[in-house]
Amino acid sequence: MVSRGSLSCFREIKRVAIFGGTHGNEMSGVTLVNMWLKNSAEVERNGVFTRPFITNPKAVEKCCRYIDTDLNRAFTPENLSTPGGDGLPYEVQRAKEINQIFGPKGSPDAYDVIFDLHNTTSNMGSTLILESSTDHFNLQMVHYIKKAMVPESCMVLLNEHPNLKYATSRSVAKHPVGLEVGPQPQGVLRSNIFESMRTILKHALDFIELFNSGVEFPACSVEVFRVHERMDYPRDTNGNITAMVHPHLQDCDWEPLNPGDPMFQTFDGRTILFEGGSPVYPTFINEAAYYEKQQAFITTRRETLAASAIRKNSK
Ligand SMILES: [Zn+2]
Question: What does pTM read for this prediction?
Answer without folding.
Answer: 0.95
